[in-house]
Amino acid sequence: MAHVAFIGLGNMGLPMAQNLIKAGHQVTGVDLSTAAKDKLKASGGALADNAGAAAREADVIVTMLPSGKEVRALYLDAGGIVASAKKGALLIDSSTIDVESARAVAKAATEKGLLMVDAPVSGGVGGASAGTLTFMVGGSDAAFAKAKPFLDAMGKTIVHAGGDGNGQAAKICNNMILGISMIAVSEAFVLAEKLGLDPQKLFDISSKSSGQCWSMTSYCPVPGPVPASPANRDYQAGFTAAMMLKDLKLSQDAAKAAGAVTPLGADASSLYSRYVESGEAGRDFSGIIRFIRGGAA
Ligand code: NAD
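Above: inputs. Below: predicted complex with nicotinamide-adenine-dinucleotide.
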């Protein structure tokens, strides 16, 4: 069993780290939050003061951080992960970040002779807790092969998407679909309400028809049809509107840089931006239905 340093014990990182402990690994956690660290300790993990200190002792270093800014700093700063990791260590970044930062960090790791994968996830907090995440992995064949058993302990579907940064490319495309489809499903329920159609009836029909999608069947934005969806608990996150906006902005930055035309992605980004500005940044992203119902003003 390996010694794993796990940096970023938030909504996603904590349950992922707990699954590595359950799989028999020795996990040392790092976070800015004392509450998060206490939870890891209570689950049988050890603690370190900072990423560099944790990396020095580890065979595998996993990061689950908010954005590219934190990832670049923790990996590339003097005394950071790349500088501190021991020879032969494997680096896994599961944060959702821009492709450019992912490739910059992977390049620095490779120059130091370390194996690294970018391995962002889909599946949310529920998938992180259940160990059923989907991992989209970018990196060399050797890095993927070395990372696979650790990703298996935290997820169910592990896909090698290509070279450095391609995991992030897949994640950005996937979440552009998710943002657009959540708006589509929300608009349909709001229209159904106006037309006097019971939301449960629309669900019963569309969940078995051509309108079927994850936003409908697993994360339904109206209370009732899918008991586990955030709609049943006042849209408590889950996956916040701010995180969805972050991913949509990443998709639009990437589209601009690559010369891809994504008009619905642009509209979804603009609508989520207004939803976040309305004071709902911390609300679950499926709460966009309330914003649409209220006129999206
Ligand atoms: P979160 O904000 O709950 O967790 C991030 C953690 O990182 C926090 O505990 C924070 O204290 C810690 N952190 C920040 N800066 C740090 C630093 N310098 N040193 C140590 N710790 C630091 O976020 P989350 O929901 O767990 O998401 C993490 C990543 O996963 C994001 O990139 C997000 O886009 C992605 N993601 C989230 C979900 C989801 O449903 N929440 C789903 C898929 C992907």
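The two ends are 54 Å apart (CA to CA).
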